[in-house]
Amino acid sequence: MRVGDFPEDVQTKACATCGALMPVLALKCTKCESYQNWYRGVTLSTTVLALLTALVSVIGAIVPNFWNWATSGNSRVAVSFAHDDDQGGFFLTATNDGDRSGSIADVIVELSVKGRPLKFDGTLDQQSNPTVEPGKSQKIRYTLDVGTHLVPYAVTDVQGACVIRVNIHEFSGAKKSEALSRDCKDLRPLDFGTK
């Protein structure tokens, strides 16, 4: 018996691709090597197979990074008072322990003088950047213009501490406020009278 010949008692069928005779139970033609079941509808050239392999590799590398980026946390900005200067300004130190950028929205100095609550807006210095990158710390300068509002008062007229209220914008859009307490005697941009 030669290869490709079948015993006479074996039932045969014609190959769906080349028409050669083959046993009914055969899954692959012995002449053209084409599959006879659902595999025959799937034809992959080496180029298509290489492209699919490359696509799976790229997706495998990108998806975890994209997922980490999309589900990563937030900025975590914390602020502390650094020091003031003789030019009507003060410095805050902002530290971001998160994995996204955060920023300081505004700064307000609040105090109570003889029972009268006062608020003064801090102005961001042109040389300072209120955005804090992840994993970084930086000093941010604000100036404080109190005009003549404090001239009728002495620093001893202040009741309690001065509060520097810092409003922070987190990356997620959440807003939070930190209150930094300072002795008003130590905050030189507050121009009190000499009484």
Helices and strands in order, then pairings?
Layout (H helix, E strand, L loop, with lengths): L11 E3 L6 E3 L22 H26 L5 E8 L4 E8 L5 E12 L2 E9 L6 E2 L4 E8 L17 E8 L5 E8 L13
Antiparallel strand pairs: 1-2, 3-4, 4-8, 5-6, 5-7, 5-9, 6-8, 9-10
Explain this structure.
The chain has 195 residues and is mostly beta strands. The chain folds into 3 domains: 1-43, no CATH class; 45-73; 77-186, Sandwich (Immunoglobulin-like). 13% of the residues lie in helices and 35% in strands. The chain has 1 helix and 10 strands. The strands form 2 sheets. Strands 3, 4, 5, 6, 7, 8, 9 and 10 form an 8-stranded antiparallel β-sheet that branches. Strands 1-2 form a two-stranded antiparallel sheet. The termini are far apart.
